[in-house]
Amino acid sequence: MLKQISGGVCAPKGFRANGVHCGIRKNKIKKDLALIVADNRSATACVYTTNLVKGAPILVTKEHVKDGYAQAVIVNSGNANTCNPDGVEIANAMCALVEAHTGIPSSDVVIASTGVIGQRLSLAPIEGGMEALVKGLGDNGTAAAEAIMTTDTVVKELAYAFKVNGKECHIGAMCKGVGMICPNMATMLMFVTTDVSITPEMLQKALSADVKKSMNMVSVDRDTSTNDTLCVMASGLAGNQTITEANADYRAFCRAFNAVTTAMCRKIARDGEGATKLIECQVSGAKSVKDARLSAKSVINSPLLKAAMFGADANWGRILCALGYSGANLDVDKIEVTFHSKAGDLAVCKEGRGIEFSEEIAKKVLSEEEIIIDVNLNDGNYKATAWGCDLTYDYVKINGDYRT
What we know:
Blueprint: E1 3-5, E2 15-20, E3 33-48, H1 56-64, E4 69-79, H2 87-102, E5 109-116, H3 124-135, H4 141-147, E6 156-164, E7 167-176, E8 189-194, H5 200-213, E9 229-234, H6 248-270, E10 278-286, H7 289-301, H8 303-310, H9 317-324, E11 336-341, E12 344-350, E13 353-354, H10 359-366, E14 370-376, E15 382-389, H11 393-400
Parallel strand pairs: 4-5, 8-9, 10-14
Antiparallel strand pairs: 1-6, 2-3, 3-4, 3-9, 6-7, 7-8, 10-15, 11-12, 11-14, 12-13
Helix pairs in contact: 1-2, 2-3, 5-6, 7-9
């Protein structure tokens, strides 16, 4: 049984956090440097972007978590530290600053950066902000979540309490989107903390399995970032018997973890750059999990479908078009499509062909802020869900001058 609680990444036992403005951004109001520290070396698992162009922080983090443990996470926004000649040097220097100010070995520091690609990141503002950052460490998860935002319009954090074999455990998270989002094996930037006692191996197993059905099913604009990182740290302070195998305790943890990632998927998609609507595509009746996922992801990736949703236009032919090029094994003559929202339900397609519907009702259904596209392939027992958003004028405006 999950219970939503406050605290974000600070909700689990053994974690403190903070976020400050140090001067990486020209905007002096926005925070741009975040830090999460654990009271002890914690089991740590990560997944990263599959883009061949990777930010320097990823290269450093991979080395630091090779043994399955870490104790701190430092993140900056405003600059991705990607494609820079001194990128790795700067990333290592940031980890060294954490060691100098907290005593945590730099080799136990996870590092991530987000922002403009191809611009050098100066260490000076980060050095200048470390004292205030560390001094403010405490129950400041929201400040940390604010500091990793780029074009996000809302802070994305949450936490749950749940039980593992009778012991109360906690899991918290913060993440940022909201453009250049089409993850493969990872997400934008997301940091999860938990006080569950679990081995690094089982933590990595849980993470790697979950992202396939959660974070990999989110898309804002079909662009896979160079810096995508999802990091999970487990302090082990909840007092449960350490999870070492895929037993009932492991499954209880996985359910809690999936609740976090699924909730974050919705937050990220809803806050996509320029978005006015959350689009959720639910595919059922597929021949395999792979077919279901390919189908759902293809629909929410379609620029034409996204534009139609912005205009509240029930142009369902674009859904079938996206299904047809998705690569999924499906029978077009069996497909059914229905739109759902708070305003009602609208069936638009049966057996791969259009059926009559009221354009007036369609406009009402599709004018809501959350829309479900229900696709039944009627060809199997597998299902999948993907999350996306509409494509608006503001997306072009935001990305037309993102760098300048």
